[in-house]
Each structure stands twice: as C-alpha cells, then as structure tokens.
Amino acid sequence: MRFLMMQMATGQAPDEKLFAEMGKFIEEMTASGVLLATGGLDPAGTRVTSAGDEITVTDGPFTEAKESVGGFALVEVSSKEEAVELARRFRRIVGDGESRIHQVFG
C-alpha cells in the first residue's frame, strides 16, 4: 500500500539537530525500501481552479498559509497502521505541528 504523508507548513526554520535526526530517519526508511520519494514544497505555490469552462490560475502565497503543505514523503508499507507509526516517529522528530496521510490508489 502506498501512502502520501504530508507535513503542513509551520513557518519555522529547521535547526542542525533536526536535519541530523531527519537524515537518520530518511536513511533508515530508504534502506528498508519503505521510502519512495520525499521533498519540500515551495510555500507560495499556484492554485488552479475551474468553474464550468473558466479556468483560473492564482499565484500564492495564500492567506491560509497554515493549510499549505510544506513537504511530503511517498511511502510503501503493508498497512495504514504502519504509515501512521511512521508519521508518529516523524512528529516526534519535528515536534509540534500537523501531518496528513492519504492512501494512494492506482
């Protein structure tokens, strides 16, 4: 099962300790074959919406920055529970904030 794990933006810059701990976590997940992809996202982003035949493109940043995704990891695990456990480990490393997990179909 594949899951997209997303870290919601916090606006706080990571420190050296966080980089080191995340590096170890990422290396462990990569070595075990769980981690398929990871990355940070541009905080501004671009929104594309449609209504009927009208397509609107709006460049960010957007006022609800707390709802923007700051980074992601695509993982392949055997169950949702395993994905949740990875998210728990991630949250213990990065501290306060919000992560979201979505199963990827197809």
Which keywords apply here?
four-stranded antiparallel β-sheet, 6 strands, globular, Dimeric_a/b-barrel, YCII-related domain-containing protein, YCII
Overview of this protein structure:
- There is one protein chain.
- The protein has 106 residues and is an alpha+beta fold.
- The protein is 29% helix and 37% strand.
- It has two helices and six strands.
- A four-stranded antiparallel beta sheet has the order 2-5-1-6.
- A hairpin with a 2-residue loop joins β3 (46-51) and β4 (54-59).
- The longest helix is centred in the first third of the chain and has 16 residues, at 16-31.
- It is globular, with a radius of gyration of 16 Å.
- The relative contact order is 0.33.
- This is YCII-related domain-containing protein.
- Belongs to the YciI family.
- InterPro entries: Dimeric_a/b-barrel (IPR011008), YCII (IPR005545).
- Residues 1-90 form the YCII-related domain.
- Pfam families: YCII.
Secondary structure layout plus pairing:
Blueprint: E1 2-8, H1 16-31, E2 35-40, E3 46-51, E4 54-59, E5 69-76, H2 80-94, E6 99-104
Antiparallel strand pairs: 1-5, 1-6, 2-5, 3-4
